[in-house]
Structure formats: structure tokens, C-alpha cells
Design brief:
Elements (H helix, E strand, L loop, with lengths): L3 H21 L5 H25 L8 H22 L5 H25 L6 H21 L3 H22 L2 H5 L1 H43 L3 H12 L4 H8 L4 H28 L5 H11 L4 H8 L3 H14 L8 H9 L5 H5 L2
Protein name: HTH luxR-type domain-containing protein
InterPro entries: Sig_transdc_resp-reg_C-effctor (IPR016032), WH-like_DNA-bd_sf (IPR036388)
Keywords: Membrane, Transmembrane, Transmembrane helix
Length: about 350
């Protein structure tokens, strides 16, 4: 049991809990939900890094970097708060964040390369290239194909300019591998992003088709599942009653009436086939019935759960018992004998 203090504490924070639930359940499709979650983590982690730099705990501490990183921190939170207040869509805030980070980090990296006597120049450039790589990952993880390519292109340009401005042999020697790594990341990311967007479109179309089909059938998902379960297996009387209970009384009455009518008609056809072919076994008469319905050999094997050799043997027995010649068409001869007992169309339509 909760104490009065606990109850009071929970009551005080309940509005914030409800606000958080509303925020995290805002997006309706899977991709946008993932974008929202990744954006929250990106904002949190980027903010930690920027605040640490502003507090001179890490990274370059000159005034230029403080102003640029402070601007990036402020803009990042403006975009995030704007999204929280529903000023922006999730796609928009992702693009604003990734472009803002790209501009600031590229500027910082080039500034570190061109300023004379920059302390720990290589470390400064490396730090900002790592942030740019993280920014590329962010845009790829949020399925921003075009913006990912822009990020990669600008990041490559930034590294090339830094290598040229510093004229550093190590940076120049590593230029090829950096470019190839970024290009590979881009190709792989664009492929993944394109697949994810295609799957999202297909999923949306499937949901639309499903909703349209359910609307046409006037059924819900639970009722459709009941239909499928009734069709796939045999059940006890109580189990069948539970499945039928998913439908209203009118639907139950229609299902039972239609199935009953079908069973009676099938029984009538079977009785007439038995009269027309008394010399055949029940198994052979079942094959006759399926042949009269234009079922192929593969259908016979599937419906009767028998092999092709078994079916062919029974077909040969039927021909032998009916005294047919090799040139005689089995289906034509079966129809000829059945005409005196039943309308062939009554068999064909079932």
C-alpha cells in the first residue's frame, strides 16, 4: 500500500506522466515513431557534449567554439521544443537538427584548420569529424536519404579542406580511406533507408486494403480469425459455439443455413453418384466426383491426401470397372452415365 506522501507525490507528477505518454504516442506509423525516439536520444547526447564543452570540460575552449557551440545548443533545443509544441513535424525537426549540426561542425573543423597556432589542431579536427559522422548516422537512422547524402558530401568536403589548409601529411595520406568510408556508409545507409521507406509504403497500403476489405465484409479482425479457424480444423460442439459467438445472431443463422444447405446438396450428389456407379468403391466414387468438377491430378492428390501413383491406380481401376477402352475420355464417359441421375451443372458448381 502507498503512504499518503507517496500518493501526494504521484498526484503531483501525474500531469507530467500524462504529458509524456501523449508525447510518445503522438506518431501514428512505425518510421515516425522511430524518428521521434532517435531524435530524443540525439538531442540528449548532443546537449551533453555541447554543455561539457561550454563548461570547458572537453574539446576546444576558445571563444569562437564557445559561441558556435552555444548557438548550436540553443538552436537544437528550439527545434526540439518546437516539435514538442507541435510547431514542426518529426521529419522537419530531424532535418533542421541535422542541417544545423552540419553547418556548425563543418565551420568549427575548417576554423580549427585555418587558424594559426591552434592548440591540438589534429584533435580539434578529429573531434568535429567524429561529431559529423554521428550526425550522418543520425540522418541515416531517421531514414533521411537526401539529407544523408548532403551530410556525407559536406563532411567529405570539410575533411578535404582541412587536409589542404593544414598541409598535414598524415591527413593527406588518410584522405582516401576517409572518403571511401564515408561513401560506403552513404551507399549502405541509402539502401537501408530506401528499403525502410518502401516497406512503410507497402505496410500502409496493406493496412488500407485490410480496412477496405473489412468494411466491405462488414467484419472485424476477430470475426475474420474465427472464420479462418472454423475453416482450418475440426472443433468440438462447445468450441464451435464459442467461435460462432463472435458473430451476431443474423450472421450465425446465415452461416449455419448455408453450411447445412451445402452439406445436404453434397449428400444428394454423393447418393446419386453411388446409384450411377454401384460397382465402384467409396474412394473411387469420390475421385469420380472430383473428376466431374474438372479437378486436376495435383488437386486430387492435395484434396485426398494421396500420391499421384495411388490416384493413377484408382483411375485405372475405375476405367476397368466401367469397361472403358484406352481411347475413351474418362470425364466424358462419367458425364454420360451421370446424365440420367443428376444435372452435371449441379456437380460442376460445387
Amino acid at each position: 500500500m502507498y503512504s499518503n506522501d507517496d500518493m501526494s507525490f504521484r498526484a503531483d507528477f501525474e500531469p507530467f506522466v500524462q504529458m509524456a505518454k501523449k508525447f510518445f504516442h503522438r506518431e501514428k506509423n512505425y518510421l515516425d515513431t522511430q524518428r521521434q525516439l532517435i531524435t530524443c536520444w540525439y538531442t540528449f547526447l548532443l546537449s551533453i557534449g555541447l554543455v561539457a564543452n561550454l563548461m570547458e570540460l572537453t574539446g576546444p575552449t576558445s571563444e569562437f567554439f564557445k559561441y558556435s557551440n552555444g548557438t548550436l545548443l540553443a538552436l537544437t533545443w528550439i527545434w526540439f521544443v518546437g516539435y514538442a509544441l507541435q510547431w514542426f513535424r518529426v521529419n522537419t525537426v530531424v532535418r533542421l537538427m541535422t542541417l544545423t549540426t552540419l553547418v556548425v561542425m563543418t565551420t568549427n573543423a575548417i576554423y580549427g584548420a585555418i587558424v594559426p597556432d591552434m592548440q591540438h589542431m589534429h584533435v580539434v579536427i578529429l573531434i568535429h569529424m567524429i561529431v559529423l559522422l554521428g550526425n550522418i548516422t543520425f540522418s541515416l537512422a531517421t531514414y533521411q536519404t537526401m539529407f544523408s547524402l548532403i551530410n556525407i558530401g559536406v563532411s567529405i568536403l570539410a575533411y578535404v579542406l582541412c587536409a589542404l589548409f593544414t598541409n598535414d601529411p598524415m591527413m593527406i595520406q588518410s584522405l582516401a580511406i576517409v572518403v571511401l568510408t564515408l561513401l560506403y556508409t552513404g551507399v549502405l545507409g541509402v539502401h537501408i533507408s530506401s528499403n525502410a521507406e518502401r516497406l512503410q509504403k507497402e505496410n500502409t497500403m496493406m493496412k488500407h486494403d485490410e480496412a477496405e476489405l473489412l468494411h466491405i465484409l462488414r467484419l472485424n479482425k476477430k470475426q475474420v480469425k474465427s472464420y479462418i479457424r472454423l475453416a482450418r480444423a475440426e472443433y468440438t460442439e462447445d468450441q464451435t459455439r464459442l467461435l460462432l459467438a463472435q458473430f451476431d445472431e443474423t450472421t450465425q443463422r446465415h452461416i449455419i443455413a448455408n453450411v447445412t444447405r451445402f452439406i445436404r446438396a453434397e449428400a444428394s450428389v454423393s447418393q446419386r453418384i453411388e446409384k450411377a456407379f454401384p460397382e465402384l468403391t467409396p474412394s473411387e466414387r469420390r475421385i469420380v466426383q472430383l473428376i466431374l468438377r474438372d479437378r486436376k491430378l495435383s488437386d486430387l492428390c492435395s484434396l485426398l491426401n494421396k500420391t499421384e501413383s495411388n490416384i493413377n491406380t484408382q483411375r485405372a481401376n475405375i476405367r476397368r470397372k466401367l469397361g472403358l477402352q484406352p481411347k475413351d475420355n474418362l470425364k466424358d464417359k462419367l458425364e454420360e452415365r451421370m446424365r440420367g441421375y443428376v444435372d452435371i451443372q449441379d456437380i460442376m458448381v460445387r
